[in-house]
């Protein structure tokens, strides 16, 4: 499955008002529920926090990849969110996260979950890819990068 096949235009969000992990997860869950990608927004928030407690999903250079498998996910989905700097969500390099790829898959989709996660991890190793995402201003620009 190609990564852009599971990224919806309506789930590419630019919101500088998001300044915390709580704001981020609330925004994700609300938008996912509105797009009929999940059945219960509050349960998705809990699933994201549960995964985050295992180890932070912040990577480096301002990027994070929060992800979860959940029985409340109706379809595999990737959301891109460009936020304000989040002081309570940092990468391994200590930099605040500002660009997020949230990955949500149904509970039993373990292989797909790992495939999507590894696909984004590989792409995020490329500095040009990261720079272009940081500078994107519209959903169309984000989708063109893929």
UniProtKB/TrEMBL annotation:
Biological process according to GO: phosphoenolpyruvate-dependent sugar phosphotransferase system
Keyword check for Repressor: no
Domain PTS EIIA type-2 as annotated: residue spans: 5-146
Keyword Transport: yes
InterPro entries associated with the record: PTrfase/Anion_transptr, PTS_EIIA_type-2_dom, PTS_IIA_fruc, PTS_SugarTrans_NitroReg
GO CC annotations, alphabetized: membrane
Keyword terms, alphabetized: Phosphoprotein, Phosphotransferase system, Sugar transport, Transferase, Transport
Gene Ontology molecular-function annotations: protein-N(PI)-phosphohistidine-sugar phosphotransferase activity
Matches recorded under Pfam families: PTS_EIIA_2
Record's protein name: PTS system, fructose subfamily, IIA component
Organism: Enterococcus gilvus ATCC BAA-350
């Amino acid at each position: 499955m190609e990564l852009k096949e599971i990224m919806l235009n309506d789930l590419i969000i630019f919101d500088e008002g998001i300044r915390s992990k709580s704001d981020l997860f609330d925004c994700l869950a609300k938008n996912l529920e509105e797009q009929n990608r999940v059945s219960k927004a509050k349960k998705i928030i809990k699933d994201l926090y549960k995964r985050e407690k295992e180890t932070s999903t912040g990577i480096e250079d301002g990027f994070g990849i929060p992800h979860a498998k959940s029985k409340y996910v109706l379809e595999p989905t990737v959301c891109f969110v460009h936020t304000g700097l989040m002081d309570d969500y940092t990468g391994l390099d200590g930099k605040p996260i500002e660009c997020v790829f949230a990955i949500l898959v149904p509970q039993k989709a373990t292989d797909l979950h790992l495939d999507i996660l590894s696909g984004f991890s590989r792409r995020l190793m490329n500095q040009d890819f990261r720079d272009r995402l940081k500078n994107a201003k519209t959903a169309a620009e984000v989708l063109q990068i893929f």
